[in-house]
Q: What sequence folds into this?
């Protein structure tokens, strides 16, 4: 017994002796070396505890952790990388947290409730803007009693300038939550207000905010809510207002400058401090994939920052990539990731034009979607394509598609519900999947496979990330409630 134990111990010792002096063969491995570099960078990060002169929040609507992952891989692949290793602009920021996005009455949130949480610091009901949860959605009579102050209103009182940007309509839920108070997100113009409703429509509230100096720069879509029904805009589209008011004319009369296409946008004098309203579409601005004759989100971000930087007391700027959400609703992954890239480019632009010493930049989403990712796909697999196998002898994906039990390939990205449902009405909702090729799946107009049939894919209640850089950015870590983001912005702007 004793002898065999000693033999065993000797074997054990000899097997560990190679590493006894701390020798690590992996020290020459690139993965190890990169992680050592990352460790040193992390250890050098110091919290910045000065007052934030400027606060910028960038919200990609519907860009949860899953959607953001798709954009990361896609942008990497467009740059010739395999993709998974790529780092988006905001993923370089030193601070990060996870955000709980539910509304007071909804496990699956909507953008009105989530926008109010971020811009006013309170969770509220789904579908309402700039009001607390005491209000019953749609009841105009309760607005006055339920109003909460927006960060735009609060920081304007401190002398800061304010900008609001969205690729959706400027009267849409997320941008509206920066400046408006409404019993319903759909009250975008007067024609949607119920009989006897005493609150002002959202477009009128934006006009009033610009006249009062609460909003100084606004870029986005939604022209139709600012002009009368009987009138056609520069692109031949009719307005929606039934009160005959032309809010664009009223704003111009009050001294604001109006731009409506890329040409007039580029001609803006950004040194002038006269308010600017840019309305580049009748409804939402175009998807990045289809964009022509309109500025990009990064171009709008640059122009707004340059215009707002004229105020020595600083500025607050809310920027929304509104259409990542819409492409997810359509189940169209190509437009999700191309608008996702446009968002990351806007983040990069904001970071380039400001200093972490005086500007807090927060990058987040309002909610996630019912998006999911299939496996097991090999490395570098086109993220909008079908799932190819793993090459056990190499790195890049194999030439053999993964298949389901039905013998058919499937896409990497899928949705739990949506227009691409495999359950078919013409077959009495029995499932039927066709064959699909990489070429078909990566077509920009392809609708990704989904399970439950719905004309519009839904949001989900899953967490989103918040990335931050600049003064007090380190307060954004851990798992937080969404309304906490407002408190961090206000703290940073008011720190002694
Ligand atoms: Zn949505």
A:
């Amino acid at each position: 017994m004793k002898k065999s134990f000693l033999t065993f111990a000797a074997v054990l010792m000899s097997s560990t002796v190679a590493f006894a002096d701390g020798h690590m063969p992996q020290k020459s491995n690139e993965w190890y070396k990169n992680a050592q570099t990352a460790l040193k960078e992390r250890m050098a990060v110091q919290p910045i505890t000065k007052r934030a002169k400027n606060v910028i929040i960038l919200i990609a609507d519907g860009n949860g952790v899953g959607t953001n992952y798709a954009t990361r891989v896609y942008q990497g692949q467009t740059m010739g990388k395999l993709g998974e290793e790529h780092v988006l602009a905001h993923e370089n920021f030193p601070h990060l947290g996870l955000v709980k996005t539910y509304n007071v009455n909804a496990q699956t949130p909507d953008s009105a409730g989530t926008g109010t949480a971020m811009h006013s610091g309170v969770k509220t009901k789904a579908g309402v803007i700039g009001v607390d949860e005491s209000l019953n959605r749609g009841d105009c009579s309760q607005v006055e009693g339920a109003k909460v102050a927006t960060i735009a209103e609060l920081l304007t009182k401190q002398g800061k300038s304010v900008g609001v940007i969205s690729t959706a309509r400027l009267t849409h839920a997320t941008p509206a939550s920066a400046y408006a108070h409404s019993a319903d997100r759909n009250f975008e113009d007067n024609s949607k207000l119920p009989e006897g409703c005493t609150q002002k429509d959202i477009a009128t509230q934006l006009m009033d905010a610009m006249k009062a100096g609460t909003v100084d720069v606004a870029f986005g879509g939604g022209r139709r809510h600012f002009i009368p029904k009987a009138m056609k805009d520069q692109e031949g589209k009719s307005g929606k207002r039934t009160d005959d008011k032309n809010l664009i004319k009223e704003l111009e009369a009050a001294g604001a400058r109006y731009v409506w296409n890329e040409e007039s946008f580029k001609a803006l004098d950004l040194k002038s401090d006269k308010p600017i309203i840019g309305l580049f579409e009748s409804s939402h601005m175009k998807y990045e994939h289809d964009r022509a004759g309109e500025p990009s989100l990064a171009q709008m971000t640059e122009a707004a920052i340059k215009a707002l930087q004229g105020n020595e007391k600083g500025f607050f700027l809310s920027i929304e990539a509104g259409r990542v959400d819409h492409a997810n609703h359509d189940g169209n992954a190509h437009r999700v990731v191309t608008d996702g890239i446009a968002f990351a480019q806007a983040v990069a632009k904001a970071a380039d034009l400001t200093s972490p010493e005086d500007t807090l930049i927060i990058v987040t989403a309002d909610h996630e979607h019912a998006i999911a990712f299939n496996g097991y796909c090999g490395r570098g697999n086109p993220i909008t394509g079908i799932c190819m196998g793993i090459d056990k002898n190499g790195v890049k994906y194999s030439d053999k598609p993964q298949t389901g039990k039905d013998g058919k390939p499937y896409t990497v990205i899928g949705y739990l519900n949506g227009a691409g449902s495999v359950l078919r009405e013409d077959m009495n909702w029995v499932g039927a999947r066709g064959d699909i090729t990489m070429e078909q799946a990566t077509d920009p107009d392809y609708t990704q496979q989904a399970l439950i049939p719905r004309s519009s894919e839904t949001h989900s209640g899953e967490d989103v990330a918040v990335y931050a850089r600049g003064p007090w950015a380190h307060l954004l870590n851990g798992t937080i409630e969404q309304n906490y983001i407002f408190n961090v912005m206000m703290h940073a702007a008011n720190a002694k």
DSSP finds 15 helices and 17 strands in the chain. The chain has two domains: 54-370+461-494, 373-457. The longest strand covers residues 161-169.
